Amino acid sequence: MTALPTTGRSWHLVARPHGWPKPEDFALREAPVTEPGEGRVLVRNLHFSVDPYMRGRMNDVKSYVPPFKLDQPMDGGAVGEVIASADERFAVGDHVLHGLGWREYAEVPATYATKVDASLAPLSAYLGVLGMPGLTAYAGLFEVASFKEGDAVFVSGAAGAVGSQVGQLAKLRGASRVIGSAGSDEKVKHLIEDLGFDAAFNYKNGPVAEQLREAAPDGIDVYFDNVGGDHLEAAIGSLNVHGRAAICGMIAQYNNTESTPGPRNMALIIGKRLRLQGLLVSDHAALQSQFVEEVSAWIRSGELKYSETVVKGIENGYDAFVGLLRGENTGKMIVSLTR
Predict the structure, then answer these.
(1) Which pLDDT does position 260 carry in this prediction?
(2) Under a CB-based contact definition with an 8 Å cutoff, are residues 77 and 132 in contact?
(3) I want to staple 234 with a disulfide (CB 3.0 to 4.6 A). Which of 144, 192, 200, 209 is the partner?
(4) Phi/psi of residue 301, each to 5°?
(5) pLDDT score recorded for residue 2
(6) Model's pTM, two decimal places?
């Protein structure tokens, strides 16, 4: 039997960021690793996820998910290998998806671990295209935004883990036109040439509303919002009568220290009879099996592509997270702990 490690490192939040997170708001600390308690498993994490929603959890405010506790290990999606088990449902060597990321070793309640199959997809895919971001895209487009064949779709943050999947899913289900926005010319090229978007633009190259009108002269029927701010205002202006918007994230204002003004054209919601609905992926767990079955088939056939930006080493967890907030990723941002 292989000896268990005696210590492992984990990232702690030590101060609540004001505006953009700073290195001194975090600490990488070492703690003892122990045998798992009854009904639990010890997992050596191979990859963990950094996601935009985590910025909100760094604030001490009431929200849909509790804030991170100070001086405690942070958490989030992770996938790893069971190295000790005190639960009959899991054996040493099993690969599992769980919620105790930001650390090298995690003692996880067995009821909160899910076996994943490395033969179906790379393990990191269960944090992205086949994980929470993928289900967010699937549920947001098809259930919240009520997408139907022939719709014209605009997605902001289109080169990210969620947005890149939204655009491709819309094309696969028969969208008449798919438009994306991103933060660099390289990402715009990726959206059109690699992912099959009909049009895309760099929001840094000019007013979003003008670029969207040029890309969608006949308007849009669905807007998938990952950004908020000027993108939401532009989308309201371009949405056709009875248009729908799934409001998934507002990364443009996560680090603002003052209140962000709302769109100035909200009155259009009335005349156009628009529906703008917030989206939390946790409300759509019932779609999980359908989502995995359909999307994994598209991945195997090559019809759906995905990208990952991989940062190696737990010591680079903070840099990966801040890089994500700055838009330095294409597709899913992953921190890999594999040797």
Answers:
(1) 73
(2) yes
(3) 209
(4) -80, -10
(5) 67
(6) 0.90
